[in-house]
Amino acid sequence: MKVVINGEETLLPEECGTLAGLLRLPEWKDRRLVVELNGEIVSREEYDQLSLNNGDRIELVHFVGGG
Questions:
Q1: Cα dist. 64→22, 26, 40 in Å?
Q2: What residue segments make up the domains of the chain, in order of their start?
Q3: Which one, out of 37, 43, 55, 57, has a CA that is 20 to 30 A from the CA of 8?
Q4: pLDDT band at 14 (very low <50, low <70, confident <90, very high)
Q5: Does domain 2-62 have CATH number 3.40.50.880?
Q6: What global pTM score does this model have?
Q7: Nearest Cα to Cα of residue 36 among 27, 25, 46
Q8: pLDDT-based confidence at 67, cuts 50/70/90?
Q9: In whole angstroms, what is the distance from residue 58 CA to residue 67 CA?
Q10: Would strands 57-62 and 2-5 be described as parallel, antiparallel, or unpaired?
Q11: With bands split at pLDDT 50, 70 and 90, how would you rate the model's confidence at 17?
Q12: How far is 40 from 14, CA to CA, in rounded Å?
């Protein structure tokens, strides 16, 4: 399935059928993220329930410590 992540078209593997599946991929796993799906901020409790579809627009914002 093709989605747009942070402005970049991305082809996702089949196991990424939900937002939780996407966030289990190595590049996103164990990061503190704010997730926006098609213009709506998604709460962590919804990750398992939200199915991803072709053409979805996903914004993943991660936080970095430092000073």
A1: 20, 17, 22
A2: 2-62
A3: 43
A4: confident
A5: no
A6: 0.88
A7: 46
A8: low
A9: 28
A10: parallel
A11: very high
A12: 23
- Residues 29-48 have pLDDT tens digits of 988 899 999 999 999 999 99
Residue type at position 7: G
State the alpha helices, DSSP H only, in the chain: 19-23
Listing DSSP states for 33-50 in one string gives EEEEETTEEE-GGGTTT-
Q: What is the dihedral of CA 45, 17, 13, 53, to 10 degrees?
A: -110
pLDDT given for residue 34 in this prediction: 95
- Report the distance separating Cα 54 and Cα 63, nearest Å: 27
